[in-house]
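ARCHIVE CARD
CATEGORY: sequence design from structure
SOURCE FIELD: tokenized fold
FIELD CONTENT:
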């Protein structure tokens, strides 16, 4: 019953309020951290927030060391413009994520808020939400990229096989679970902030307690979401190809007639594929965040829930005892 309530419930929230796709588009910039961790393990590829934070650090370092004069002033102004654009995108992305979480709870209680109300609520809770994201940035990316991966490379080159084995066991059985657990805890913490209106520290503490009680169903749901995400990405890519290919063949056919027609048709095909990608990203960005908010709601306020693995184990073990 858990999955039959959570997954259709997330879809119904979007269907009842299509304007949430706007929030979904910006929330999709934050990526799907739990899915990425499951698929990539200790891979330290930076996401949008990690790349932006890294750019901010480099920008502040540049301004602290560079001499400002007429020669490099245009380049510095350009960096400032990029900084402002990225800052606006970060604020919109984090606020949109908060708005989606709040909208999920409001649809359950049949509370009606306007688009601007959700945007205001998300912006109002930006700093505690961003603080939770910073935990994922420092632990999930910078710690792995700056400490774990170089250490593994060093041991692989100069260490013994025994040292490499011990380090691998530590990484995959201690550090990687720690990063994954922090991701789940911060995910639940966002719901405590947006729905329960808790402060940063209280939200983080309560989310840890919630995960500790429901760790099995949380991980199981993350695996299910990872499979759904993979299927969705395949479907999105297939849709983009399906739309673009007719434009491509038409442009090739007309290439000998007119170069202008060839260019226009290719641009139209690319635009159509881009629109499909943006729409799909908005849809899944909204669905993903609302889904985790629904999971939090079921675990925090809906009574004790049990994973499919647990229920199957109970069923078959009870049968075997008989």
């Amino acid at each position: 019953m858990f999955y039959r309530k959570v997954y259709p419930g997330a879809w119904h929230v979007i269907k009842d309020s299509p304007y949430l796709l706007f929030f979904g588009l910006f929330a999709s910039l934050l990526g799907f951290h739990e899915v990425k961790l499951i698929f990539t393990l200790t891979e330290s590829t930076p996401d949008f927030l990690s790349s932006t934070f890294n750019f901010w650090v480099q920008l502040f370092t540049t301004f602290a060391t560079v001499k400002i004069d007429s020669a490099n002033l245009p380049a510095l102004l350009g960096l400032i413009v990029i900084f402002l654009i990225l800052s606006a995108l970060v604020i919109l992305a984090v606020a949109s994520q908060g708005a989606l979480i709040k909208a999920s709870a409001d649809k359950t209680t049949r509370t009606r808020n306007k688009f601007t109300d959700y945007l205001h609520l998300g912006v109002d809770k930006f700093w505690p939400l961003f603080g939770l994201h910073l935990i994922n940035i420092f632990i999930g990316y910078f710690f792995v990229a700056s400490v774990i991966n170089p250490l593994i490379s060093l041991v692989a080159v100069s260490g013994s096989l025994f040292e490499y084995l011990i380090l691998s066991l530590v990484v995959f059985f201690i550090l990687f679970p720690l990063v994954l657990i922090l991701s789940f805890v911060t995910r639940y913490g966002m719901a405590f902030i947006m729905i329960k209106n808790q402060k940063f520290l209280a939200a983080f503490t309560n989310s840890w307690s919630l995960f500790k009680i429901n760790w099995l169903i949380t991980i199981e749901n993350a695996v299910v979401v990872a499979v759904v995400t993979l299927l969705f990405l395949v479907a999105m890519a297939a849709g983009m190809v399906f739309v673009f290919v007719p434009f491509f063949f038409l442009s090739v056919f007309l290439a000998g007639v007119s170069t202008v027609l060839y260019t226009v048709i290719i641009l139209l095909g690319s635009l159509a594929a881009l629109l499909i990608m943006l729409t799909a990203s908005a849809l899944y960005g909204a669905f993903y965040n609302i889904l985790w908010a629904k999971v939090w709601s079921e675990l925090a306020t809906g009574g004790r829930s049990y994973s499919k693995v647990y229920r199957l184990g109970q069923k078959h073990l009870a049968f075997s005892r008989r």
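CARD ANNOTATION: DSSP finds twelve helices and no strands in the chain. The first helix runs from residue 2 to 16.
SHELF: design records, drawer C
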